[in-house]
Amino acid sequence: MSQEIIKLMLQGIEETLFMVSVSTIIAAIIGIPLGITLVITGKGHILENRVMNQILGTIVNIIRSVPFIILMVAIIPLTRLIAGTSIGTTAACVPLTIVAIPFLSRLVETSIRDVDFGLVEAAESMGASPFQIIHKVLIPEALPTIINNITVLIVNLIGASAMAGAIGGGGLGDIAIRYGYQRFRADVMLATIIILIVGVNLIQAIGDFAARKKNKK
Protein backbone atom coordinates (compact mmCIF):
# COMPACT_ATOMS: atom_id res chain seq x y z
CA MET A 1 0.00 0.00 0.00
CA SER A 2 1.48 3.35 -1.09
CA GLN A 3 2.20 6.33 1.13
CA GLU A 4 -0.56 8.21 -0.67
CA ILE A 5 -3.14 5.58 0.24
CA ILE A 6 -1.93 5.42 3.86
CA LYS A 7 -2.26 9.19 4.10
CA LEU A 8 -5.73 8.91 2.58
CA MET A 9 -6.75 6.23 5.12
CA LEU A 10 -5.57 8.41 8.01
CA GLN A 11 -7.61 11.28 6.61
CA GLY A 12 -10.61 8.95 6.35
CA ILE A 13 -10.22 7.91 9.99
CA GLU A 14 -10.02 11.57 11.04
CA GLU A 15 -13.14 12.46 9.04
CA THR A 16 -15.07 9.47 10.41
CA LEU A 17 -14.09 10.37 13.98
CA PHE A 18 -15.22 13.95 13.36
CA MET A 19 -18.63 12.92 11.98
CA VAL A 20 -19.29 10.37 14.70
CA SER A 21 -18.07 12.63 17.53
CA VAL A 22 -20.15 15.65 16.50
CA SER A 23 -23.27 13.55 15.91
CA THR A 24 -22.88 11.67 19.20
CA ILE A 25 -22.37 14.81 21.30
CA ILE A 26 -25.37 16.63 19.82
CA ALA A 27 -27.52 13.49 19.97
CA ALA A 28 -26.62 13.01 23.65
CA ILE A 29 -27.40 16.64 24.49
CA ILE A 30 -30.84 16.41 22.87
CA GLY A 31 -31.64 12.69 22.85
CA ILE A 32 -31.07 11.92 26.53
CA PRO A 33 -33.42 14.67 27.82
CA LEU A 34 -35.90 13.69 25.10
CA GLY A 35 -35.85 10.06 26.22
CA ILE A 36 -36.37 11.10 29.83
CA THR A 37 -39.23 13.38 28.79
CA LEU A 38 -40.92 10.53 26.93
CA VAL A 39 -41.01 8.61 30.21
CA ILE A 40 -41.91 11.28 32.76
CA THR A 41 -44.74 12.70 30.62
CA GLY A 42 -46.23 9.23 30.22
CA LYS A 43 -49.34 7.96 31.98
CA GLY A 44 -49.00 7.93 35.75
CA HIS A 45 -45.49 9.38 35.85
CA ILE A 46 -44.19 12.44 37.67
CA LEU A 47 -44.99 15.00 34.95
CA GLU A 48 -47.85 13.30 33.11
CA ASN A 49 -48.76 15.15 29.92
CA ARG A 50 -50.35 12.87 27.37
CA VAL A 51 -50.53 15.48 24.60
CA MET A 52 -46.82 16.29 24.78
CA ASN A 53 -45.96 12.62 25.12
CA GLN A 54 -47.99 11.73 22.04
CA ILE A 55 -46.54 14.55 19.93
CA LEU A 56 -42.93 13.78 20.87
CA GLY A 57 -43.45 10.05 20.42
CA THR A 58 -44.96 10.55 16.97
CA ILE A 59 -42.09 12.80 15.81
CA VAL A 60 -39.54 10.28 17.06
CA ASN A 61 -41.32 7.40 15.33
CA ILE A 62 -41.59 9.26 12.02
CA ILE A 63 -37.87 10.06 11.88
CA ARG A 64 -36.89 6.55 12.96
CA SER A 65 -39.06 4.98 10.27
CA VAL A 66 -37.13 6.64 7.40
CA PRO A 67 -34.11 4.64 6.16
CA PHE A 68 -30.89 6.60 6.62
CA ILE A 69 -29.89 6.69 2.95
CA ILE A 70 -33.33 8.11 2.02
CA LEU A 71 -33.20 10.61 4.88
CA MET A 72 -29.80 11.88 3.68
CA VAL A 73 -31.21 12.65 0.25
CA ALA A 74 -34.55 13.98 1.50
CA ILE A 75 -33.02 16.62 3.79
CA ILE A 76 -30.38 17.92 1.37
CA PRO A 77 -32.00 21.40 1.37
CA LEU A 78 -31.87 21.45 5.19
CA THR A 79 -28.28 20.20 5.12
CA ARG A 80 -27.32 23.02 2.75
CA LEU A 81 -29.08 25.53 5.00
CA ILE A 82 -27.24 24.36 8.13
CA ALA A 83 -23.84 23.36 6.77
CA GLY A 84 -23.67 25.54 3.66
CA THR A 85 -23.07 22.46 1.48
CA SER A 86 -24.59 19.04 0.87
CA ILE A 87 -21.32 17.10 0.53
CA GLY A 88 -18.36 16.50 2.82
CA THR A 89 -17.99 15.55 6.46
CA THR A 90 -19.61 18.68 7.91
CA ALA A 91 -22.68 18.17 5.74
CA ALA A 92 -22.87 14.47 6.70
CA CYS A 93 -23.09 15.47 10.36
CA VAL A 94 -26.58 16.90 9.78
CA PRO A 95 -28.40 13.70 8.73
CA LEU A 96 -26.28 11.64 11.12
CA THR A 97 -27.37 13.83 14.02
CA ILE A 98 -31.01 13.88 12.94
CA VAL A 99 -31.12 10.09 12.78
CA ALA A 100 -29.13 9.69 16.02
CA ILE A 101 -31.39 11.83 18.25
CA PRO A 102 -34.58 9.71 18.03
CA PHE A 103 -32.55 6.50 18.05
CA LEU A 104 -30.85 7.42 21.32
CA SER A 105 -34.03 8.86 22.83
CA ARG A 106 -35.84 5.53 22.46
CA LEU A 107 -32.93 3.64 23.98
CA VAL A 108 -32.81 6.07 26.91
CA GLU A 109 -36.57 5.85 27.29
CA THR A 110 -36.31 2.08 27.73
CA SER A 111 -33.48 2.51 30.27
CA ILE A 112 -35.47 5.02 32.34
CA ARG A 113 -38.59 2.84 32.24
CA ASP A 114 -36.57 -0.02 33.69
CA VAL A 115 -35.84 1.99 36.85
CA ASP A 116 -37.91 0.62 39.73
CA PHE A 117 -40.89 2.97 40.07
CA GLY A 118 -40.85 2.26 43.80
CA LEU A 119 -37.73 4.41 44.03
CA VAL A 120 -39.61 7.27 42.38
CA GLU A 121 -42.54 6.88 44.77
CA ALA A 122 -40.17 6.82 47.73
CA ALA A 123 -38.52 10.03 46.57
CA GLU A 124 -41.94 11.66 46.06
CA SER A 125 -43.01 10.66 49.56
CA MET A 126 -39.96 12.48 50.93
CA GLY A 127 -40.97 15.65 49.11
CA ALA A 128 -38.53 15.49 46.21
CA SER A 129 -39.37 17.72 43.26
CA PRO A 130 -39.63 16.28 39.71
CA PHE A 131 -36.20 17.74 38.87
CA GLN A 132 -34.68 16.15 41.97
CA ILE A 133 -36.25 12.80 41.08
CA ILE A 134 -34.78 12.99 37.60
CA HIS A 135 -31.37 14.15 38.81
CA LYS A 136 -31.05 12.02 41.95
CA VAL A 137 -33.02 8.88 41.10
CA LEU A 138 -33.75 8.24 37.43
CA ILE A 139 -30.44 9.24 35.84
CA PRO A 140 -28.12 7.64 38.45
CA GLU A 141 -30.08 4.39 38.42
CA ALA A 142 -30.18 4.20 34.63
CA LEU A 143 -26.67 5.55 34.02
CA PRO A 144 -24.90 2.22 33.30
CA THR A 145 -27.55 1.35 30.73
CA ILE A 146 -27.45 4.86 29.25
CA ILE A 147 -23.69 4.45 28.76
CA ASN A 148 -24.40 1.18 26.95
CA ASN A 149 -27.01 3.04 24.88
CA ILE A 150 -24.45 5.64 23.82
CA THR A 151 -22.03 2.85 22.92
CA VAL A 152 -24.70 1.26 20.70
CA LEU A 153 -25.35 4.67 19.13
CA ILE A 154 -21.66 5.23 18.34
CA VAL A 155 -21.37 1.80 16.73
CA ASN A 156 -24.44 2.50 14.60
CA LEU A 157 -23.12 5.93 13.64
CA ILE A 158 -19.85 4.40 12.46
CA GLY A 159 -21.85 2.21 10.09
CA ALA A 160 -24.04 5.12 9.01
CA SER A 161 -21.01 7.36 8.43
CA ALA A 162 -19.57 4.70 6.14
CA MET A 163 -22.88 4.68 4.27
CA ALA A 164 -22.73 8.47 4.01
CA GLY A 165 -19.54 8.06 2.01
CA ALA A 166 -21.60 6.59 -0.81
CA ILE A 167 -23.02 10.06 -1.60
CA GLY A 168 -19.95 12.16 -0.89
CA GLY A 169 -20.04 12.27 2.89
CA GLY A 170 -16.33 11.69 3.25
CA GLY A 171 -14.66 9.39 5.75
CA LEU A 172 -13.76 5.74 5.42
CA GLY A 173 -16.94 4.94 3.48
CA ASP A 174 -15.99 7.43 0.78
CA ILE A 175 -12.52 5.89 0.51
CA ALA A 176 -13.97 2.39 0.29
CA ILE A 177 -16.31 3.44 -2.53
CA ARG A 178 -13.92 5.64 -4.56
CA TYR A 179 -10.76 3.58 -4.21
CA GLY A 180 -11.77 0.13 -3.04
CA TYR A 181 -14.82 -0.39 -5.26
CA GLN A 182 -14.58 1.98 -8.22
CA ARG A 183 -10.83 1.47 -8.75
CA PHE A 184 -10.86 -2.24 -7.86
CA ARG A 185 -8.37 -1.81 -5.01
CA ALA A 186 -9.01 -4.88 -2.87
CA ASP A 187 -6.25 -3.85 -0.45
CA VAL A 188 -7.97 -0.51 0.24
CA MET A 189 -11.33 -2.20 0.74
CA LEU A 190 -9.80 -4.77 3.10
CA ALA A 191 -7.94 -2.08 5.07
CA THR A 192 -11.14 -0.05 5.45
CA ILE A 193 -13.05 -3.07 6.73
CA ILE A 194 -10.30 -3.95 9.23
CA ILE A 195 -10.17 -0.37 10.54
CA LEU A 196 -13.96 -0.31 11.01
CA ILE A 197 -13.96 -3.69 12.78
CA VAL A 198 -11.13 -2.67 15.11
CA GLY A 199 -12.81 0.68 15.80
CA VAL A 200 -16.17 -0.87 16.63
CA ASN A 201 -14.64 -3.45 18.95
CA LEU A 202 -12.52 -0.83 20.71
CA ILE A 203 -15.51 1.45 21.29
CA GLN A 204 -17.60 -1.48 22.51
CA ALA A 205 -14.89 -2.49 24.98
CA ILE A 206 -14.56 1.08 26.30
CA GLY A 207 -18.33 1.41 26.62
CA ASP A 208 -18.66 -1.91 28.47
CA PHE A 209 -15.87 -0.94 30.86
CA ALA A 210 -17.43 2.47 31.58
CA ALA A 211 -20.84 0.89 32.17
CA ARG A 212 -19.40 -1.65 34.61
CA LYS A 213 -17.64 1.15 36.49
CA LYS A 214 -20.93 3.01 36.96
CA ASN A 215 -22.95 -0.07 37.84
CA LYS A 216 -23.67 -0.02 41.57
CA LYS A 217 -25.32 -3.46 41.61
UniProtKB/TrEMBL annotation:
GO terms for biological process, alphabetical: D-methionine transmembrane transport
Membrane topology of this protein: Multi-pass membrane protein
Subcellular location(s) per record: Cell membrane
Membrane-spanning intervals of the chain: 17-42, 54-76, 82-104, 146-168, 188-211
Limits of the ABC transmembrane type-1 domain: 13-207
A single cellular component GO annotation: plasma membrane
Keyword hit for Hydrolase: no
UniProt keyword terms in alphabetical order: Cell membrane, Membrane, Transmembrane, Transmembrane helix, Transport
Cited CDD domains: TM_PBP2 (cd06261)
Family from the record: Belongs to the binding-protein-dependent transport system permease family. CysTW subfamily.
Listed PANTHER family: ABC TRANSPORTER PERMEASE, D-METHIONINE TRANSPORT SYSTEM PERMEASE PROTEIN METI-RELATED
Protein name as catalogued: Methionine ABC transporter permease
